[in-house]
Amino acid sequence: MAGALSGIRIVDLTNVILGPYGTMLLADQGADVIKVEAPEGDAVRHIGKPRNTPGMGPAYLYVNRNKRSLCLDLKNPRARAALIEVIKTADAFVHALRPQAIEGLGLGYDEVRKIKPDIVYVGAYGFSADGPYGRLPAYDDAIQARFGIADLMGRAAGDDVPRYPPTILADKTCGLTFAFSTLSALMHRQRTGEGQFVEVPMFETMAAWLMVEHLWERTFDDQGEVGYTRLLARTRKPYRTLDGWMAILPYNDKHWRNFFELIGRPEVLKDPRYATLNARSLHINDMYAMVEALTPSRTTAEWVGLLDQAQIPNAPVSKPADLLDDPHLVWRQLFKKYPHPSEGEVLMVEPPMRMSRTPPEIRLMAPLMGADSRAVLAEVGVAPAEIEALKQAGALIEPD
Fold first, then answer.
1. What is the mean predicted confidence (pLDDT) over 219-234?
2. 293, 316, 339 — which closes off a domain?
3. In this structure, what DSSP letter does residue 346 have?
4. pLDDT value of position 27
5. By residue range, what is the domain housing residue 117?
6. 292-303 mean pLDDT
7. End-to-end CA distance of the chain
8. Does residue 281 carry a pLDDT above 90?
9. What is the pLDDT of residue 278?
10. What Rg value do the Cα atoms of the chain yield, rounded?
11. 3-state helix, strand and coil shares in percent for the chain, rounded to the nearest 5
12. Among the four 42, 155, 290, 385, which has the fewest Cβ within 10 Å?
């Protein structure tokens, strides 16, 4: 069957990771996502080594699948007029430019809704546009520094040296929020016929994300501690075994009871410091230190067997490359090769969710820059002579 969002058209002026990841999620569900690029192309095209074609780097191939590429120089008034014809056919217009930049192109919300009154208009950028930081640029590392995760990483590591987790945490999390927000507004439009303006600011999104658990005692007291104690325990970490590393996570009363019975020390839980969940949370460093002291006595496989039998959460530590051969992910066929028109056979990651009636799928490989420029404009009624004039003026880009 067609994807759940089949028939929805999204005009996408996003680049790098945040916006393209969000619109990829919608495209995987069947939406017709028209990726609008400037003549220089999306910067992420040039991150990582391509196989055959410049501008077809690995991260670009991932987050731009299932999309069509329309490449226009929007500084040219005729190119902007051509884009307006595309917007007239769209259900949503999404961008990741700073508000001042999108307004400078004449594509702010007030202008776009004159063209398409029921448009769902979504902007994703660093900070709410009308706030004190509204004119600041935002990149993933800067947002990580500002919303607190870099500090927490250092505190949890035990040396209080701030550090970044080795992933673009803010971009991808905000990309999820971007997709969810767009879909929510589309649902409202379907019910009421009303479009709306939607803002997805990175800083606020990540602050809200972090404070799910780290607001902690400040929830009740203006002087209360901020920071979830268990996650800041310096003994909360993967533990060394006789031949490797693994996670061991006794969490509830049953887990801890089974763990101390397993190691022959059931009396530990009679100590008032460790007898209840709340008491253990106040002494969690002690609890994890006991686990850490024991793990070198057995191999990872021995621990996994014992802990699985006792129904105590655990997992060996994997490297990212190990995921390609993980038995569960192999069973799930999460990694699958597809033929790409210019890059040959490429490995892609399948959509992870499963849907019984409208399964998401990879239908199209990431396009060459401007691969669909002529076709998209023809679809919306731009005259062939005008398309050719844009091409001759250098305002419309197609592959060589």
1. 93
2. 316
3. E
4. 98
5. 9-209+331-397
6. 96
7. 35
8. no
9. 87
10. 25
11. 45, 15, 40
12. 385
pLDDT at 1 over 80: no
What span, in angstroms and rounded, lies between the C-alpha atoms of 263 and 7?
A: 59
Counting every residue written for the chain, the total comes to: 400
User: How far, in Å, CA of 5 to CA of 22, rounded?
Assistant: 14
139 and 271 fall within a common domain? no
Which of the four pLDDT bands, split at 50, 70 and 90, describes residue 151? very high
The CA–CA distances, whole Å, from 391 to 47, 90, 199, 376, 399 equal 27, 23, 34, 14, 11
Whether 256 and 292 map to the same domain: the answer is yes
Neighbours of 265 (CB within 10 A): 12
In a shared domain, residues 298 and 349: no
Continuous segment of H or E residues that includes residue 12: strand 9-13
Tokens read off for 378 = 């023809």
Looking at residue 18, its pLDDT comes to 97
The CATH number for 26's domain is: 3.40.50.10540
Please say whether the beta carbons of 376 and 396 come within 8 A: no
Token pair for 14: 């996003």
pLDDT (mean) for 307-319? 96
Report the Cα 247 to chain-centroid distance in Å: 24
- H or E element at residue 191: helix 169-192
DSSP 62-89: HHTTTEEEEEE-TTSHHHHHHHHHHHTT
Count structural domains, the chain.
2
Question: Which residue(s) pair with 12 in the sheet?
Answer: 35, 94
Quote the CA–CA distance of 393 and 395 in Å, as a whole number.
Answer: 5
Helix H, strand E, coil C: the string for 299-319 is CHHHHHHHHHHCCCCEEECCC
Are residues 70 and 41 in contact, defined by beta-carbon separation less than 8 angstroms? no
Q: Is 236 helix (H, G, I), strand (E, B) or coil?
A: coil
Asked if 344 and 297 sit in the same domain, the reply is: no
Residues in CB range of 216: below 8 A, 6 or more apart = 224, 225, 226, 227, 228, 229
Question: Is there a single domain that holds both residue 307 and residue 345?
Answer: no
Q: How many CB atoms lie within 10 A of CB 180?
A: 13
Instruction: Please give the model's pTM, rounded to 2 decimal places.
Output: 0.93
Choosing from 263, 285, 316, the residue where a domain stops is: 316
What local confidence, expressed as pLDDT, does residue 294 receive? 94
Q: Within a 10 A sphere around the Cβ of 311, how many other Cβ atoms?
A: 9
